[in-house]
Amino acid sequence: MKHPDLFKIIISLGFFSFSTAALTDNNQQLTDVACHYETTITPDNKSTAPSTTTWFFWRKANIIQTQDESGRYGEIWEKTATGNIQYRKFYPADKTAVEYMPADSTTHNLVFNWNKLSNMLSQQELDALKSVENKQVLGRNAELRTGKINEQTIEVLWLPTEQLPASIIRKDKTGMVALKLIEITPLSAARQKPIDSETIANYRQIDAADFGDMENDPFVKKLMSVEGHHVD
Fold it and tell me: Using CA atoms in the order 13, 69, 199, 65, what is the torsion angle rounded to 10 degrees?
């Protein structure tokens, strides 16, 4: 089964393409949190069954990490002192990490903005939706925002204090993608902890740019097979 790029699915729920300048950091101090999410993809094609993935999201000041609930696969973004974003996919069972260098970001279509990684939605995207009502979700204040943009019907349940979505529902002619928050706690109190950066640093590190020269490597062969003979 193909490993989902968990976070790529979510941040692609954004409905506008903003330039990097439009998404500059606002230096907002965000709390360290641990979230448990569920993502369901329902294709418009009735012959294709919906698929559901449960996964974890952890946010710290300079590190964002996601991991599927099984713990087989994860992603980590680290903001360096120079402002670059280091991105790696990691595979705990194989004790291996695949690193995508900043210089290769455009080649792999991996241009990240730290604010959007931290919040999942940009302020511009939220402002494009109409505020409908205030609600309570998991004992927290939430704002329901809705709109129709670029032939997509969008519904967001936003947690203003935590600056994260409790849910995102996007519907268009291709089907529906729904994100749902299952649990949110302070990171210090989380039952499920992220893998620490030091542990991942001790994994075998592979530069994604080297995959083409490593077709006989057992791990690379397995990963390319899982990913359909292509690795981004």
Answer: 20
